[in-house]
Amino acid sequence: MRASLIQIAVDEGESVASRRRRAAALVREQAGSDLVVLPELWTTGAFAYEEFGAEAEPLEGPTYEVMAKAASDAGVWLHAGSIPERAPADGSAPDDGSAGGGDLYNTSLVFSPSGELAAAYRKIHRFGFDKGEAVLMSAGRDVVTVRLPGTTLGVATCYDLRFPELFRSLVAAGAETLVIPAGWPERRRAHWTLLAQARAVENQAFVLACGTAGTHAGVPQAGHSIVVDPWGEVLAEAGAGEEVLTVEFDPGKVAVTREQFPALKDRVMGLEPPAPPTQVGGRGR
To answer: Euclidean distance between the first and final Cα of the chain, in Å?
Structure first.
């Protein structure tokens, strides 16, 4: 399988419409790849919080249309990164157990080579604690996988990378290749690399983690998109600037790894948290 990760730069001064056109052109240049991946919130920048509401679009909005056409023109499976999605105010949004209509979501779009929408994933873990994405956007609830010829993708986004239980759920749903678009800051780049390798090793899966270059609202981005195999070996890694990282990998290595070292068979699911320690009252003997 041939995968191309487009580590696009998101900088002030370029309009969203211009960046859409540029991203679509980069996707078309990857004709011959099987899978193409764009980063998280590349239309606005992951830290451009003030732009989320202004640039939010419906699921089948401008980015959907441009990316569907690009996937079809290139004949590739396209993970088009994520967009700030505004759910319909009439409540007609997909019933995924998330918050109500009119809310914002960090939503990933995956297209087939014919340009059809194969899946949409609303980011479950939102970054920011008590500000930013965490308060501006609602959380999704669905675990999303996409079946490609030769492998099943498990879809996650950026901050999700810090929550291994999500990836266990993706593996339980059949995922063999974990695709993670991100807008990861440069100051925590060491975590980006470490966590990508950890998710690959513990789930015995390929990890394709696509970050952004440039600066989002004054926050320098890590870049360094990375592809990791099921043993944790880094197959390819980008630099800090805008580039397309292309790698060939054999999806069959997942089954071989899981057969040769069947650690996943020893998973114990649904463990209960420990009871609080017993308080011993009175004086000791």
So the answer is: 70
Q: Sorting pLDDT into bands at 50, 70 and 90, what band is 111? A: very high
- pTM for this entry: 0.92
210 labelled catalytic: no
Q: Any residues with CB less than 8 A from the CB of 278 and at least 6 apart, and which?
A: none
Return the axis-axis angle of helices 164-172 and 189-203, rounded to nearest 10°.
30
User: pLDDT for 170-194, tens place per residue?
Assistant: 999 999 999 999 999 999 999 999 9
Question: Which of these is catalytic: 55, 85, 123, 242?
Answer: 123
The one-letter code for the residue type at 126 is R
Q: Which of 113, 199, 109 is nearest to 148 (CA)?
A: 113
CA-based torsion, 123, 124, 130, 136: positive or negative: positive
Structure token digits, residue 285: 């003997």
Q: Is 158 a catalytic residue?
A: yes
**Token pair listed for 123:** 């980011």
Does the annotation count 123 as an active-site position? yes
User: In angstroms, what CA-CA distances link 1 with 19, 170, 197, 248?
Assistant: 28, 20, 20, 6
The DSSP string of 92-144 is -S--SS---TT-EEEEEEEE-TTS-EEEEEE-SS-SSTTSTHHHHS------E
Spatial separation of the C-alpha atoms in residues 254 and 229, rounded to whole Å: 8
The answer to whether 43 and 19 have CB atoms below 8 angstroms apart is yes
- Among residues 133, 158, 176, 242, which one is catalytic? 158
pLDDT tens, residue by residue, 20-63? 999 999 999 999 999 999 999 999 999 999 999 999 999 999 99
Cβ partners under 8 Å of residue 173, min gap 6: 143, 145, 154
Q: Which of 40, 85, 176, 242 is catalytic?
A: 40
What domains are there in the chain, each with its CATH number?
A: 2-266 (3.60.110.10)
Query: Tokens 């998710």 correspond to what residue?
Result: 199
